[in-house]
Amino acid sequence: MFLFYFTYFTDLFCRLFMPPSTDDASHDEALSSRVAALNMLDLGLRHLGIDVVETEGAGDELDVVVNACGEMLGQLDNCFCPGDKAAILVAAHKIVVDGLSRLPPIRLISEEEQAQELERKKVEEGEEEDPKTARPFSSTQSQSQSQAQAQSQPQSDKPNTTSSSSTSLPIDISSPSNASSRSEATAWSQPSPMPPHPVTSPPETAVSPLPSDLEKTADSAQHLAVPNASQALSASSNGSSKHVPPPLTLPSTTQPQSSPPAPAPAPSSTLLTSPPPNPKPTPVSGDVLFPLIIFSVVKSNPPHLVSHLLFTQRYRNQSVGGEESYCLINLMAVAEFVENVDLAGLGLGGGRVMSIADLSPIPLTRSPVTSETPLAPSSSSTNDGHAAHETIRGRVEQQVDAIADSANKVISGVVDSSFGILRSFMPVGGASGSSGTNAGGVNAGGGVGAGGVGGTGVGGQGGTPAIAIPRSYSIPGTPKSEYGELKVGSAASSVTGPGSGGGAFGLLRKESGFSIASLAASLPIPAAVSRGRSG
Amino acid sequence: MSKQFQFKLVLLGESAVGKSSLVLRFVKDQFDDYRESTIGAAFLTQTVTLDDKTTVKFEIWDTAGQERYKSLAPMYYRNANCAVVVYDITQSASLEKARTWIRELQRQADPSIVIALCGNKLDLSARRQVSQEEAKKYADEEGLMWTETSAKTGEGVNEIFTAIAQKLPLTAPSANRAGASRTGPGARAGVDLNKQAAAPGQPEACNC
């Protein structure tokens, strides 16, 4: 029984997974290209609002956790059953949660701080960003500039423009009760936590205060350590009224299981095996779990993630477990976020990848394949570049087929009479051989609709033998899908080298992106159309 | 008679107002046999028993409260039966954020959703910035449940959840409330089934 189910399901899988009527594949592309862009810009946890420096020494641990989560998500490819996939989703969450429970509390960076950071960066770059992303914030320019200059974080292998934009400034505004002031002291000497191979042994562990005297030293450390702490001082002096100091473990909100200021800097080697006794682990809330899952996805770029998620959503009975649906929704939200993320809003250099973002929009509906689309993934995602052609081809096929179905009835009737007129546009000899090329050319020039209709005109003849067809135009018995491939092949070729299709159709195409459909519709044969519909 | 209801409860509010602490307090306080969820405080379930032996099981969905994730919130409060919007009484800005959440819920969420406004960190009332009158007035205007809680001391935590549980079946009376929350996913599956039917349909049409 199970075997039957398995074989049956495996057979169906290709059809059910990434069903051609949906745009799952496009989402996969879009996601992975966005992930590639984020990786190129060296997205760090700090950009997502998590202060890694605070958990010093645990940065490695966090990396381990993140990688494990990414690997788990990568296993989505290896199972077919929706239940298995859902279990993997939960397991990926569990990895993060378990990992966090081993680590000292993680501090969240408040949005005010991030806004400040953005503001500072904008000043630093000396350019005005999109006003949508700019949140009004009244930080004096001189101060922010001095802060910007004060810290020159060693950014490893940062490509030109991003080096300025992605220098994430450690944030100074912190509640005195939180130990984050120490992190500010160390942040300057510590390389950025964002590079893929972060600091292995932070030297500050030697000087970091013990949890017992942390309370005492916190205030003084804030005065001493932070070189540009004028803002921090003002913020902390007025009692954290305006600026939200949101360490994840706010003393007021924490309960016995999360005593706040206990970031005992345990040696990272022992963290995996024996949890440090003193610090109560972070209660994993959505506030911290979600950015970490995002980070895992970005770092691991699991293949076909969106397809897996949508597949699970479609075929997994969601009443099975609330936890499963929560994890599913969480990951879908991750995908949604990564696909639509405003890079400038994250504090990453938005300008550099804007072209990619424009090239691979996330189609909410089935978007027409433009001539740019095949180029977008190959230029953006290096590892998926070779797969891009395959997916594009599949997409074009599916759209051509879909449109062909709907247009078949009308067109096949029209073809009967209109081909007589069309023949005058085409050199008779080359028509049979170049019909696929013609359709593909139109496809590349005028959009899928034109290509689909063109394909239908030819394919419809094969399917409707009642219509008298001039022999030179019909290729009887050829499956429509082959037309699709033919068209795609020629579409790709005409993208790179247009003008391959000869004859009058080529001329028409060059002139105005003409399509067979519009041509046929403009012909003065209303009787033929009505006859085709009625027949 | 004992009826079992199951509701999806979504937690909204600015980050660090104590959403997860609140729910952890609620979940851990009530039952000793509390079983740790596999995914921490992000998703928890808790059962409340009402006077008339009706049990209400909450599936509590925590959300990321950061502003940048705000656009993703609809994915979480979709099909939610109730929402707890948390603010921090020591930060007036968090009440403003709560107001925007509530506006959004009233506009976009299920119209029958029960919204509770919850001022957390009552233990820090010495640093209070949001007066009870202000919050209560707002809640009354909007027809929300309102209370102040302290996740640290547990004050008011169980009360708010119990009050939600009592209000929930009332807002959608008759026993099919549980059915409604059950058919929520079921209805979705139905829609998806149609999609399935359409999905293989098209390739078949093309392979002929």
Automatic annotation (TrEMBL), chain A:
- Amino acid composition bias (Pro residues), ranges on this chain: 192-201
Q: Name one GO molecular function term.
A: small GTPase binding
Enumerate the spans annotated as VPS9 domain: 25-347
Q: Mind telling me which PROSITE patterns this protein's record contains?
A: VPS9
Which Pfam families does the UniProt entry name for this protein?
Answer: VPS9 (PF02204)
**Any idea what this protein is called?**
VPS9 domain-containing protein
What's the domain of life for this entry?
Eukaryota
In this chain, the stretch annotated as Disordered covers: 117-283, 366-389
What's the source species for this entry? Panaeolus cyanescens
Q: Which GO terms describe its cellular component?
A: cytosol; endocytic vesicle
Composition-biased stretches, type Polar residues, lie in 367-384
TrEMBL record, chain B:
What would you give as a GO molecular function for this chain, any one?
A: GTP binding
Q: Which organism is it from?
A: Panaeolus cyanescens
Any one Gene Ontology BP term: vesicle-mediated transport
Instruction: Supply the SMART domains for this chain.
Output: RAB, RAN, RAS, RHO
The highest taxon in the source lineage is Eukaryota
Gene3D superfamilies the UniProt entry points to: P-loop containing nucleotide triphosphate hydrolases
**Alphabetic keyword roster:** Cell membrane, GTP-binding, Lipoprotein, Membrane, Nucleotide-binding, Prenylation, Protein transport, Transport
* Subcellular localization: Cell membrane
Q: Give one Pfam hit by family name.
A: Ras
- Endpoints of the signal sequence: none
Task: Write down what this protein is called.
Answer: GTP-binding protein RAB5
Q: How does it sit in the membrane?
A: Lipid-anchor
**InterPro entries assigned:** P-loop_NTPase, Small_GTP-bd, Small_GTPase
